[in-house]
Amino acid sequence: MRSTLPFAAIVALAATAAITGTASASPIQSFHAHNYDACLSSYTNGELTWRTSTTTRPTAVDVTGYVGLRDPHQCAFPSRPTAVAVFTAYNGGTVVDTQRESTLTGSADFRFVLASPSASPVIVPIDRVTVQVCHTAPVTAPTAVTCGDISTYTP
Fold first, then answer.
1. What confidence tens digit (pLDDT) does each residue in 115-128 have?
2. Which residue, 64, 63, 62, 55, is CA-closest to 122?
3. Which H/E stretch holds residue 31?
4. Which of 111, 113, 108, 137 is nearest to 126 (CA)?
5. N or C: which end of the chain has fewer CB within 10 A?
6. Is the model's pTM score more than 0.70?
7. Where are the domains of the chain?
8. Nearest CA to 90 among 131, 56, 119?
9. Are strands 128-136 and 94-103 parallel, antiparallel or unpaired?
10. Which CATH number fits domain 24-153: 3.40.30, 3.90.380, 2.60.40, 3.10.450?
């Protein structure tokens, strides 16, 4: 169906939305990262929702998903292995925020926001988020940590 609004009215509505800072729909992006070694398989999957305010650059990222650990009984471990998903938000080369989510068995759901610290007087835009999954053990040793490749996501 065609719009019955005159062109001038459409332009006025668009200008009003721009002036009042009405945000457009936030882009949603799927993410995935994994780590496989001789004994374990761990993974994380979910969605990143890039939030913008009155600027066109994202200032926060809503993260929802799950982290999982498969085959924890394939090898003998000195202690229980843990799958850890690490999420890091950047502005250029500066870390804006980081969050870790983990599980000892099966999978665990999570939901959090990556953004500038609430105590910060300046809201720092986010230009990318990295995701990486690692295997760790409660008792740390030089060989206790292995990590998969880093996956990078941009708005």
1. 988 767 788 899 99
2. 55
3. strand 28-36
4. 113
5. N
6. yes
7. 24-153
8. 131
9. unpaired
10. 2.60.40
